[in-house]
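From the pipeline queue, job 12 of 40. The input is one protein chain; the requested action is below.

Action: predict structure.
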Amino acid sequence: MDKQTFNQQLMAFLDASPTPFHAASNMAAALDAAGFIALDERDDWSLEAGKGYYTLRNGASIVAFRVGQGDVAQQGWKMVGAHTDSPCLKVKPNPVLHKKGYFQLCVDVYGGALLNPWFDRDLGLAGRISYRSQDGELRNRLINTERAIGCIPSLAIHLDREANSNRSINAQTDLPVLISQPEKAPDFNALLKQLLIEQGGSDVDTVLDYELSFYDVQGAALIGLEQEFIASARLDNLLSCFIGLQALLSAPSDQHSVLVSNDHEEVGSMSSSGAQGPMLESVLRRIAGDESRWQRAIAHSLMISADNAHGVHPNFSDRHDANHGPLLNRGAVIKINVNQRYATNSETSAAFRHLCQQCQQPVQSFVVRSDMACGSTIGPITSSALGVATLDIGVPTFAMHSIRELAGADDAVGLSQVLAAFYARQ
């Protein structure tokens, strides 16, 4: 796939995936179109060599795989991992505020969000609603307003003269989202019922619960004088989900290939569908068949954890180790940390460098400054849980965890080519 087509499809995926539920659903739809077979974890599985399969958990985490022609116990799995969630503002269970005649919704901060950029943005609402249908069944449905229904207005500088030098954000009092100006406080569940009906949920009787997030309705865009950059929400880490998905779809059917995209990475991965949960191990054990085959397959396997890396910011280059400042549009980044915040070791790093050389793709490295704390990924979690050789890589990015992030227009398609070669290698 050429760069222009790849990036257009990437941006369409980003725009269509405002929540992890939408991201996993869109990935499943792409897998369906490519002939992959959906599996239910509650059923017995009958797997055939040469075919592709996938399974969802909680509607927001997905494991997709191809069953190769050879013995997986002797060949192992080629695995790529990413995560579907991004820092955001989630609606509280009892969210309604009616203050000074304004209707607002209270939110919780999900993950390590950079909060300042959320002010004065056009915010839509999306997520999953659980309801009782008119025939008495419990059902779930995804919703997406697709248009702005709210914003968080900044306090004018005239009322806060120190705003540019000393403004902090109180997540409890400063972030309620302005929705409308009704005479009295509305029934939020009634509003959600109407929204469900408008979006095709004609069978809804009573809204029971929800997991809803606000998001910036501004779509992804190519920017820069020569359109060198991709600007979008949720690049961390839907960018890696899309890259891994495209690589898997192009993988040969005779290889044992796996793509896992977990929810809840931004809050520690400790959930039934997160990387600290048993989902991936459960799927792989079912493929392997018994304990001995599972152990042998893992010993032959390699996991590539793909999660965005910090590109060196030209205005803040002192925040990087001077010898390890990845540049946008200069290739994927190998992420290294001696304290195992990343799972990379010299063997897995060398394997990836060799792969990049074979694909004629540039590669960079990132090490956090020795006097700064290092973030982490699903890499060390998956590696320690499965005992699988792992490395951490990612596309260099600016403004990570902001409501709008920036990446290079060359890097995503380049990494996808490398991961496609990884899946195809014998």
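Job complete. DSSP finds eleven helices and 20 strands in the chain.
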